[in-house]
Amino acid sequence: MDMPVRGETRARFAITVNGERREVDVDLRTTLLDLLREHLGLFGTKKGCDHGQCGACTVLVGGKRINSCLSLAVMHEGDEVTTIEGVGQVGNLHPLQVAFLDRDAFQCGYCTPGQICSTLGMLEEVRRGEPSQATLDLAAAVIGLSDEEIRERMSGNICRCSAYPQILEAIRDIAGPVA
Amino acid sequence: MSSIADYALPNPVNQNRAGNIGRAVDRYEGPLKVTGTAPYAYEVATPSPPAYGVLVGAEIGFGDVTAVDDVAARAAPGVILVWHPLNPPPNQGEKGAKTYVQSQAAADPVFATPKVAYFGQPVALVVADTLENATAAAQLVRISYKEGDAEYEFDALKAEPARGDQESRIGDFEAAFEAAPVKVDELWTTPIQNHCQMEPCATTAWWEDDTVVVHASIQMIKQPQHLLAETLQIDRGKVHLLSRYIGGGFGGKGSVYEDFALAALAARDLQRPVKIALTRQQMFNATVHRPATVQRVRLGATPDGRLTALALEAATHCNRGEPFIERAATFARALYAAPHRLTGHRLHLLDIAVASAMRAPGEAVGMLSLEGAMDELAEKLGLDPIELRIRNEPDKHPETGQAFSVRQLIECMQDGAARFGWDKRNPKPGQTRDGRWMVGVGMATAIRGNFLLPAKASLRAEADGTIRLRQGMTDIGTGSYTILAQIAAETMGVPLEKVIVEIGDSGFAPAPGSGGQFGAASAGSGALAGGMALRAKLAEMAVNDPGSPLYGSAKEAVDFRDGLIAVENRSETIGALVARLAPQGIEAEGASAPAPDARDISSHSYGAHFAEVGVDTVTGEVRLRRMLGAFACGRILNAKTAKSQITGGMIWGVGTALTETNRIDERYGSLMNQDLGNYLAPVHADIANLDAYFLPEVDDKANPLGIKGVGEAGICGAGAALANAIYNAIGVRVRDYPFTPDRVLAAMGAL
Amino acid sequence: MRPFTYERAADPAAAAKAAAETPGAKFLAGGTNLLDLMKLEIERPAHLIDVGRLPLAEITETPDGRLTIGAMASNTAVASDRRVRARYPVLARAILAGASAQLRNKATVGGNLMQRTRCPYFYDPSKPCNKREPGAGCSAIGGVNRGHAILGASEACIATNPSDMSVALSALAATVETVTAAGATRRIGVDDLHRLPGDRPDVETVLEPGELVTAVTLPPPPDGPQDYRKVRDRASYAGGLFSLALAGKQIALGAVALKPWRATKAEAALAAGASPAEAADAELAQADGQGRNDFKIVLARRVITAALEEGMAS
């Protein structure tokens, strides 16, 4: 599609969301979060703080988790974005969504899509061997997913209802025991 | 019901024949929440594309708006409306007016005066075609102010006796304290705290002919509906208010803010849907907070650990125009026995943001002092802290003489202690080291008042056998949907899958909403009443219908089980009965209210917290290592959601102890922690192994369900358990919450 | 946000040239700090030059034992790099102590170096701030300044630099590489990149208009242990009250000044045979608090002393 033209305040471009290529025409100021919510009607991605301080807006871009609030939509021309709507649907839940239900890993539900997307990104990060602050041995070839690792790695997603113990259980359900 | 004795009479919930009550049922609305398809207030589908409103907050703390230059904002791209005190929304009711009979709230017109009562108070609204345009234009509104003389600095010494709850005296406290051989007399402070609901306050509104449809993120339905009707000057039947999914409340959405009426007013003016959300920054100054407190606790005891004198005096603050007392001392009237007692509140009127209820108002901060003082007293006496509390367990309310309903405080302490391994605690502080950490354990109790408010509910049987419960209740994450479904299923004798719960709608039978941990008891009792009313209707229909196998039976003999309406071995399905006689469905409404003699009973949820912390003696950092809560809260409706409520509350206590504070700049009157990077709610890494459980209990003097509140009990006393654990770790007392590294280092004498 | 225009840079030199020539232009990389500030209109660029897709994300070893990290490498990529983890663990640790995984996935090395203070007065446009509006005054002085600077502050500004990564880069004596508007390559020692506030706290670095950070180069790691310690109120996802990066005999401090603070006085004292506590005192002799943040001086002394003692013991 068209690259944004210098001097204009809008942009037309293509972005793939949940496997579907979308042509969009937006104000350059539109964040990825507002593109998803207000333009594409994908309200599953939540606006908790709009400043990268809560994690409710977490989505996967190219499989990596980011805060969609601190990204302009136009920065994501051609990117593949996965939101909670692409993770699983009512009647076709992802195992992690089932685990969240089973463990009661949420209360008000507003941080939940971000927690789930964040978990999926997190598990890939561990699989790739990316360390965290909780990683004791930076040189280790394989990082075991201890409870401390999960807690640290999920600390970018605030849950004010404070379902943290239940979120840990849900993640453990799909991640399996400590490697 | 005519008497609390009636609460204990057999009913479907306390009989629980199908076992729906107490089961760890998944959240009713859970599939929508885990898929992101539950529409919160800002996300509801509008009948036509919405316009976007953005609020502008006052940049002074106190004074008047003297001029507004909105020329640039009006000329900005996409802007379609700008309102402020010099150009207010038209056709609003006058402040405080009640035009309609039996209104439970008065008109609260927006931008009706130029007064600025606190920093960040919304003083302008900009509506534009897009969120981006509205946000940008809001920055272009230039407001001039005249600042007034204001008081921004909380000073306990300037606090005046709080009208409404200033003092309670029993015996002669001063003389008894003076004479007591063992004493504690210390000051505790707690800071301003913010609710930080993950979903900022938001409203979407549109008009359908002369009716306004409003979706808002609010904890209560009825009063806001009335407020809006009075403000809009329309009949309240023309206000259709909905609040179906709420991203956290915690008391902060028990009030409504400028977004609420403005969305409806702007939608009326523009003849199109309008939606307004507060920004996260606005949530801190433009909504409400828990006020700071200064608390003095004095305990006098005999050498064998009997309290002779007990005083908790709390000073707190609120906005001058919005009186609110943080009743930090009230719980102390019910917790421990002592013949001579003094409790009370003083209030300092300030010109800062509005103070109001936040999760367990009163207990949440008051227990932080008294439960620390009890730990200090236990040490002075050489007694185990649990033993000290057992020795001062009252057999009736120490001040009112009321009988307690069910009170298992001692059981919570003893059972929790056994599970936690309290006996391994070294009572001598400063003895346990783990690498760079000093380790300590501490405990505290929990008490939180239990309440029952009037509620109605309607239940409807559909021709397919579905039971539809409708109630003007809310679910702020508490589990209302789920427990109402369980109650309806059990009452009607149908499988849980056959129940549909519809709440958060002003068109439904009114219930008190969510707050004060009264929701489940009140709304649930209403649902039970509604179910009983529907049972009576269905039974009447069946026994009088020649087409029914129940024809001719006594209606009192009719039973509801397994989806059937039955008398002995004769039965038919509810669906068959309804399809035959009322294919459009049959509905009944029931009402519940506290029995008149409920006032003779003192009812509370109880618990005990046990915490283990590590203190880094180099840095003063404190980290939770493990925590256990043992609770007794009557019958548990849902083992899963109730436990989540309790552990959530406990984690709020951890935040209270370790991180949460807002700081006011007294030069400007503004709270300076204005985002979630500066106001530190706990993150996942702060919460190590934390668990809670309930003791078996039925409180049949509390309500017909035998339940008590769980939403707020968990926070009560939790922070004090950490404070006491810090003492056990390093041997110094910390009394100024939260216990951040600077305060711990100061307590250690390092500074 | 104010309206702005946007372009994607074709190459670094073109980006630098365009930035210098376009009024009100700003570089946009990960966006995690710039967009945060634009939403509050603290940053009001008229034009954004998106450098996020420039081919500057490589991490490469040089034959002389250095490691060059492209400015567009994500924070995560750097902290996860096997060579960084093996040879520069203090850098990996520092990065992992900052922000959240989501932010580290998006934020770049160049952007991390350029991030602005988190001073709450800087973030509250209703309050005077010399950074936002030179000459307006500093409302943090006399205000809520528990987290503010104890070293190198001025009467115009007492803010701190929030970067953890930069503290490690300082201890590692890293070099920042840039391309100027004229297309020249410039190398700046990381300790020379940021300015102390003086009377112009709005001028935060020595970079010239249009100058774009393209890489950071790490010299071969110094002998000795490496360590990063961060003290904070919350266990994760929070700014530091104090931090310390140790790389052999090289020490840098964080959350104490408007720049990562290379502790040269402590290093010199140690070289002259001072004890850890004496070395800490040597560095902190010039420290000055605002009252509410005085504890940071004590905290710094305790952490420096403990870290050096442990470093010597190992």
Would you give an account of this structure?
- The complex is a heterotrimer of chains A (179), B (751) and C (314).
- In chain A, helix 3 (95-103) runs antiparallel to helix 6 (164-175).
- Chain A has six helices and five strands.
- Chain A has 179 residues and is of the alpha+beta class.
- The radius of gyration of chain A is 17 Å and the shape is globular.
- The longest helix of chain B is centred in the last third of the chain and has 25 residues, at 519-543.
- In chain B, the strands form nine sheets. Chain B has a seven-stranded mixed sheet.
- Chain B is globular, with a radius of gyration of 27 Å.
- In chain B, helix 10 runs parallel beside helix 17 (718-730) and helix 16 (639-658) crosses helix 17.
- Chain B is α+β, with helices and mostly antiparallel strands.
- Helix content of chain B is 25%, strand content 26%.
- Chain C starts with a strand and ends with a helix.
- Chain C has twelve helices and twelve strands.
- By secondary structure, chain C is of the alpha+beta class.
- The mean pLDDT of chain C is 97.
- Chains in contact: A-B, A-C, B-C.
